[in-house]
Amino acid sequence: MPPVAVPIENATSVLQEGSPHRSRRASLRVLTRNIGRVVLGNLAFDTWYYSPYPDNIILGPETSTTKYTPGSAADLRQATAHAHGAGQPQCERLYVCPCCFLYTPKEHDFAQHMAIHRARREQGLETQPVPESAVKVYEWEGHAVWEIDGEREKLYCQNLSLFGKLFLEQKSVFFDTSGFKYYVLTYTKPEPSVPVATKGRGRKRSSSVLEDDVLYQSQVLGFFSKENLSWDANNLACILVFPPFQHRQLGQLLMAVSYKLSGWEWEGGVIGGPEKPLSAMGRKSYLRFWSERIARFFMGQSADADAKTVFYKRKRTLHSRKEEMTVKEIGDRTGMLGEDVVAALNEMGILEVVPSKRKNRISSSEANGNTAQGEVEAEQEMASMSIHRSKVVDWAARHNVNLTSPVREEGFLGEWALSDVDESGVSDAEDADSNESLA
């Protein structure tokens, strides 16, 4: 469902009193936050962590007597001062534009800025809350993912990073965005259907002015970023779904997109995972994502959106109740690192490790009779594990796992679009090769 619009003057905190987020982060909120609440368009909610917004902007120029340099030692000293402050955020409320993520502590300036975006939307000069250079890589049922170059759109990505740090504990890149790409998730409300005219009296249903506002027909829900060149094969650097839109499986959608964009199922693609170490919340989310991904694989479904590009050659056995596979085989078929496969299987509780065996192999010289005694060489087998599909079924039932992938292959666009594969599981290219060989 699309987010419900809330008037700014009547906006209430998304994290109500008694929320587990409030109780768990109470001490952190008092010690480190420099901003109390943010107003993102028509939504207002509490922040979780400190973010290095420049003091001379969020508090006014009169509060800063020294020149502000983002990321400098002075900036770090300011962060330390905030951490040991009186316990109250220095900026009670920060207004953030939902279109470009520019910020101001002044409501009047915020209203004027929003009026500019509203006018551009009404004139058709602006249609989405992303830069014009953004490239759409995925779209399905109103949700879209846009690729934004951190080098080309530095200001947008810097503002997005500063806003994201308010809800991320470990994010460290704010200003040097040139080596990253950002993938922004948006939701666009579907076009309203024309009501059918009926005879007789009837009460017209009132609609909120904010719900019909052209500014909020398309909103940013979250984002993830990744390095342009990662020596550790990371397919994601940081990920965030904004607090008002959490608990809607949107994080699973972004994770699935990050794996798809790594191109792991294609020749030359990269098998990787998120940048580590993960935060406590990130690890919990990824363990769930990895577990569902492996469950889909063992239940005969696709681990990723595109099943047939990887699994059309999968061997079928007569005794399919139990098979033995190595960690590397599972990783190769799901696009996951071996360590992530093991972590997910341990989390699921379905992992049974088969101890490695040592075989004695007679050398070729003895086999040919060239030596009297011969030589015996020890060959070490790779450790394997036993997976019972019945345990996968039980795990899926206990955790209400949806075996449908969080992304749809039909939704990917451009170079990531659906590959041409027929119902038999053979691609057009392979079919052409076979016809050529027969000819």
TrEMBL record:
Look up and give the organism this protein is from. Knufia peltigerae
Which keywords annotate this record? Acetylation, Acyltransferase, Metal-binding, Nucleus, Transcription, Transcription regulation, Transferase, Zinc, Zinc-finger
Name of the protein in question = histone acetyltransferase
Q: Where does the sequence pass through the membrane?
A: none
| EC numbers | 2.3.1.48
Please tell me where this protein is predominantly located.
nucleus
Localization annotation: Nucleus
- What class does this enzyme belong to in the EC scheme? transferase
